[in-house]
Automatic annotation (TrEMBL):
Pathway as given in its UniProt record: Amino-acid biosynthesis; L-proline biosynthesis; L-proline from L-glutamate 5-semialdehyde: step 1/1
Membership in a protein family: Belongs to the pyrroline-5-carboxylate reductase family.
A Pfam family per the record: P5CR_dimer
Domain Pyrroline-5-carboxylate reductase dimerisation: 163-267
Protein name per Swiss-Prot or TrEMBL: Pyrroline-5-carboxylate reductase
Superkingdom per UniProt: Bacteria
GO cellular component, one term: cytoplasm
Reaction(s) catalysed (UniProt annotation): L-proline + NAD(+) = (S)-1-pyrroline-5-carboxylate + NADH + 2 H(+); L-proline + NADP(+) = (S)-1-pyrroline-5-carboxylate + NADPH + 2 H(+)
UniProt-annotated binding residues for NADP(+): I9, G10, A11, G12, R13, M14, A72, V73, K74, P75
Record's subcellular location: Cytoplasm
Length: 270
C-alpha cells in the first residue's frame, strides 16, 4: 500500500510551492507528503517550509511508496532520474512538471503501461493562485486526469490542453510570473523616478498589477475596455500609453512569451 499521498522527486522551488499550496488547500496533510532530493540544504528548506513532511536523499524511498509521484527535477536530469526510478507494486500515477519534456520521453523511460500526466504549473501555486495546463499520456484514465485537475485546482486554475500546446502554456503562465515581476520592478522604478519613496512605490506597483489582474478575472471585461475606462481624453494615462507604444511594450511581451515557448520546445528535443 502506498504510504504517501503525494511524492515529489526533486524538492526544489516548484515542488515546495506545489506541496505548500496543496497542504494549505487541505488536499493533504504534510505527513502524507514525501520528497527526495540529493541536496541536503534543499531537503532542509522543504522540511522547514512543510514541517511533518518526509524527506529522503534516495528517490526510490519516495517513488516506491507514493500514490501520485510528481517529477519536479530540471528537464536536463529527467533522463537520468527516469532510468533509476523503481515504482511500487500498486504503480503510482506519474506527473511530470518539467518544461519541454514530452510525454513520449517520460513513457519511454518508465515501466510499460505507466499512467503519466504532463503538467505545466507556475510558482503562484504556493499561494493558491497558480495557473496550469496539463495533458494526459497514452495510459492516463479519466480518473487520473480528474486527480490531477483536483490537485491543480486546489492551488489555482487549470486547463486540460493538447500536449502540443504545453510549450505555449510554458511560455505564457509557466514563465509569465518572471515577466510580470520585471513589469512590477519597472513600474516601481518609474514611481521612484517621479519622486516616490521606494517602499511606497514597490507596494503601489504590486497592488496595481494584482488589482488590474483581478479586474480582468472578476469582471470578465475585455482588457481593452478596462484600459479605455482608465484613459481620460487628453489625460495622464493616454500620455503614458503613448510612451508604452513608442517602446513597443506589446511586441516585446509577445516576443518574450514566444521565446520562452520556443525554448520549452528545444528542451524537449534534448
Ligand atoms: N520554477 C518555476 O517557476 C517552474 C518550474 N517548472 C519545472 O519544474 C521543474 C523544477 O524546477 P525548479 O523547482 O524551479 O528547480 P529547482 O532547481 O528549484 O529544483 C529541482 C531540484 O531537483 C533536484 N535534483 C537534481 N537531480 C536530482 C535527482 N537525480 N533526483 C532528485 N532530485 C534531483 C535538485 O537538487 C533541485 O533541488 C523543472 O523541470 C522546471 O522546468 C515548471 C513550472 C514553473
Ligand atoms: O525557466 C524555466 O525553465 C521554468 C519552466 C517554467 C518556469 N520556469
Amino acid at each position: 500500500m502506498p504510504q504517501y499521498k503525494y511524492g515529489f522527486i526533486g524538492a526544489g522551488r516548484m515542488a515546495s510551492a506545489l506541496a505548500g499550496g496543496l497542504v494549505d488547500a487541505g488536499l493533504a496533510a504534510a505527513s502524507e507528503i514525501a520528497a527526495s532530493d540529493p541536496n541536503a540544504e534543499v531537503r532542509q528548506a522543504f522540511a522547514e517550509r512543510l514541517p511533518g513532511a518526509h524527506l529522503h536523499g534516495d528517490n526510490a524511498a519516495v517513488s516506491r511508496h507514493a500514490s501520485m509521484l510528481i517529477l519536479a527535477v530540471k528537464p536536463q536530469v529527467m533522463g537520468a532520474v527516469l532510468g533509476n526510478l523503481p515504482l511500487g507494486e500498486s504503480a503510482p500515477l506519474v506527473v511530470s512538471i518539467a518544461a519541454g519534456v514530452p510525454i513520449a520521453k517520460l513513457e519511454a523511460g518508465l515501466a510499460e503501461g505507466t499512467h503519466v500526466v504532463r503538467v505545466m504549473p507556475n510558482t503562484p501555486a504556493l499561494i493558491g493562485r497558480g495557473a496550469s495546463g496539463f495533458s494526459g499520456g497514452t495510459h492516463a484514465t479519466a480518473d487520473d486526469l480528474a486527480s490531477v485537475l483536483q490537485l491543480l485546482e486546489a492551488v489555482g486554475i487549470a486547463f486540460e490542453v493538447p500536449e502540443s500546446l504545453l510549450d505555449a502554456v510554458t511560455g505564457l503562465s509557466g514563465s509569465g510570473p518572471a515577466f510580470v515581476y520585471t513589469m512590477i520592478e519597472a513600474l516601481s522604478d518609474g514611481g521612484v523616478l517621479a519622486g516616490l519613496p521606494r517602499a511606497v512605490a514597490h507596494q503601489l506597483a504590486a497592488q496595481t498589477v494584482s488589482g488590474a489582474a483581478a479586474m480582468v478575472l472578476e469582471t470578465g471585461e475585455h482588457p481593452a475596455l478596462l484600459r479605455e475606462a482608465v484613459a481620460s481624453p487628453g489625460g495622464t494615462t493616454i500620455a503614458g500609453l503613448a510612451a508604452l507604444e513608442q517602446g513597443s511594450l506589446r511586441s516585446t511581451v509577445i516576443g518574450a512569451v514566444k521565446a520562452a515557448a520556443e525554448r520549452s520546445q528545444q528542451l524537449g528535443r534534448n
